[in-house]
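Good morning C.,

I know you're traveling, so I'll keep this short. The sequence:
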Amino acid sequence: MSRKAPDSLQPTAATSAEAAAFGGAQQAHVAAEDETLKNTLVATVVADGAASNDRAQQARGVAEDKTANSPHAAAYAPIPLVDLAAQHAVLQPELQRAFERVLASQTFILGPEVSAFEAEIAELIDVPHALGVSSGTDALLLALLALGIGPGDEVLVPAFSFFATAGCVARVGAKPVFVDIDPQTFNIDVELAAGRVTRATKAIIPVHLYGQVCDLAALTKLNLPIIEDAAQALGAGTAPRQAGAVGAFACFSFFPTKNLGALGDAGLVTTHDAALAKRARLLRAHGAEPKYHHALVGGNFRLDALQAAFLRAKLPHLPQWNKARQNNARLYDGLFARVALPETLLRTPVVQQPNHIYHQYVIQTPHRDALQAYLQRERIGSEVYYPVPLHLQVCFAHLGELAGSNPVAERAAREVLALPIYPELAPAQIERVAGVVSDFLRHFG
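The tokens, ready to paste straight into the viewer:
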């Protein structure tokens, strides 16, 4: 059985036309202002009696320079969704030293570098056991395997998340059971999750989406093993409910664009349970202990020493990077509040849990596709996380979930849009992004 996403989740040609029409008018206005600046400067020279062709041409050149340095020129400089070059330029000496250290060690997989990283990040998260693994996806897969989840089992997952949340459940042969999300936070709706529990339910995977922790206190009352999908939430929350400190396992991703990003794929599994940690370590390396003697069928989920070294160089900077994201989010919030667009046109992030670390700053608007097309014209980066809810992915069609079964997730898939929020973003860039978004959405007011 094949199935494409419903038409309601697909962009329409009208959105591009709307963006083009609005963008053309705006650009014409700016071009007229810039041309006026040039002509005024030329006219000034003429009025002073220096009207020769040479002097006039020189004046126009000055005008061109002033225009290039005018607010309009700065306004049209590209603003990417993420700018890793800005971060890595500052850290280049530290990253170079990390590379040279691993190269000299001749230990490239696991080893002392990985062990040191595990100890340092376990202290940050306040857990006794941390295992470096090959990716955030493999972290989820390893946690499921360590809990013995497989065919015939069910695992509750949010209907709105990155694919790996449900994909890993399917990979171990279990059934992902999709639960709708809270309309304010986009995190799993705990009350709805309670209603989906059956005798076959063996675990729940709540996702701390966009950097805001789920209601962990409420989740623990379900009396299910919790696998925290904390891929976007390293440093989020506060003790004793910080991301990674509550579940049977917690899983983190160090994909390069994460708040703490490797220079390739990398991930982490954490737990408070010594027995689970021992089992996970065994499964991480093909279930072998000692070498070439396999007690379990595991996988190759090992972390490269080079990625661990890069992460160790970056880890001390994480608190200030998270704080910068929070400051950027507050600036966005204030700018959008000043414009006071109705919530039917624009909804900004709603914070219900402490210490949201804004892996993404996600707005919601019914004109999402047209707005994104216009932002692209304005050379402002944005992204949709995520355009198709999990229960409507074609690979899960056999589970029988139909459009309308998780309406909040489906609306989010139609309306969410992530704006630039990276730590190095300048206030003037945030002001430009907020201004472009607000001006465009006023068009629909």
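Safe travels,
E.
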